[in-house]
Design a protein that fits this description.
- With 192 residues, the protein is an alpha+beta fold.
- It has 2 helices and 10 strands, in the order αβββββββββαβ.
- The radius of gyration is 23 Å and the shape is elongated.
Length: 192
């Protein structure tokens, strides 16, 4: 009899744990409400060009909700070892207005998610969105180049650097030279 009741007790405990874990697994962050901002886009690098494992500019675009909002924007991305790293900034988003938040990030792996999270002090997570590197879909952003590549940056009108480097004798992909263009010098990062 003792063995039977002990088994029943263990089965009940296991059932309770399973139900609890199912509830936790299906619980999601508070959905974005009309008064919270939404995460509309993410852009990384210079004209989409950046090197894996190197610091790069990342721009997050937010759309203001029905009310002004104050909180933090968190960006999580894996480093070269696959360990999630996080950068954060406090932000105030005015009602109904778009806002661009610049970051410097060091993404270490291609085909990985970059997670953008909006956190309010009083409500916790109010919005979260993942962008995948190297995926060509609505939420995708370009994948990075190997850290051994060179990126030449043109600012303003094209200097036809592509034509100059096409004569390069280096044929190995991991040693390639890439050209990126930034039309407006004000789009260059001012802090790292």
């Amino acid at each position: 009899m003792k063995l039977h009741s002990s088994l029943l007790l263990r089965a009940s405990a296991l059932g309770f744990c399973s139900i609890t874990m199912c509830c936790l697994a299906t619980a999601s962050p508070e959905s974005t409400t009309a008064d919270s901002p939404t995460i509309t886009a993410a852009r990384i690098g210079f004209d989409g060009a950046f090197k894996l494992g190197c610091w790069s500019p990342l721009t997050i675009e937010l759309a203001g909700g029905d009310e002004s909002w104050q909180g933090q924007v968190l960006v999580t991305a894996p480093d070269t070892d696959g360990v999630p790293t996080q950068v954060r900034k406090p932000v105030v988003v005015e009602a109904g207005k778009p806002q661009t938040i610049p970051f410097s990030v060091r993404v270490g792996q291609s085909r990985c998610p970059i997670t953008v999270t909006l956190v309010a002090a009083s409500k916790g997570v109010v919005a979260e969105r993942q962008f995948y590197l190297g995926e060509h879909q609505t939420d995708g952003i370009p994948g990075g180049y190997p850290s051994t590549n060179r990126i030449l940056l043109e600012c303003g009108a094209s200097l036809e650097l592509e034509a100059l480097i096409s004569a390069e004798l280096i044929t190995e992909e991991h040693l390639a030279t890439r050209v990126a263009n930034v039309q407006n010098p004000l789009d260059l990062p001012t802090e790292w």
